[in-house]
Design brief:
Alpha-Beta Plaits, 3 strands, flat, mainly alpha, three-stranded antiparallel beta sheet, 4 helices, 66% helix
Length: 137
């Protein structure tokens, strides 16, 4: 029975290619499913045989450790050279885009909670109106 080996959702293309090459290099049979036309299905790499998982898992763990070390070194190098941008640096380079997105966010937040505040103004008035029309006992 087929067994899920690696979920490809959100995985960079080079990492997926490396995993495919790793499995092929060690003669582990696999197949791949994609996300489909609307992205609803599970993009993943599946192994045909469950016993292949016992062979593939240690290889995959070793690959992931090496990749993490490489990516960490690339990040530190970019940071050391001043090529890495943080949140504010990235938005300072595109101020109009930042202002547009911030304005859109504020507008959406306002439209989402506006009715709640208006509801608070309407309810006390209705309660007062109904109590005025009631006869006193």
């Amino acid at each position: 029975m087929a067994v899920l080996f690696f979920n490809l959702r959100g995985v960079p293309g080079d990492e997926a290619d490396d995993i495919r090459a790793l499995l092929e290099a060690h003669a582990i049979d696999f197949y791949e499913t994609d996300a489909g036309n609307w992205g609803m299905s599970l993009p993943a790499i599946w192994l045909y045989q469950e016993q292949d998982l016992q062979r593939a898992r240690p290889l995959f763990d070793e690959y992931q450790e090496q990749r993490a070390q490489r990516q960490r070194a690339l990040y530190l190098q970019a940071k050391r050279l001043g090529e890495h941008q943080n949140f504010w640096q990235r938005h300072r380079s595109r101020p109009l885009q930042f202002l547009f997105y911030t304005g859109a966010l504020i507008l959406i937040a306002y439209a989402s909670v506006k009715w709640v505040f208006e509801l608070g103004d309407v309810l006390p008035n209705r309660v007062q109106e109904s109590s005025i029309n009631e006869p006193v006992k």
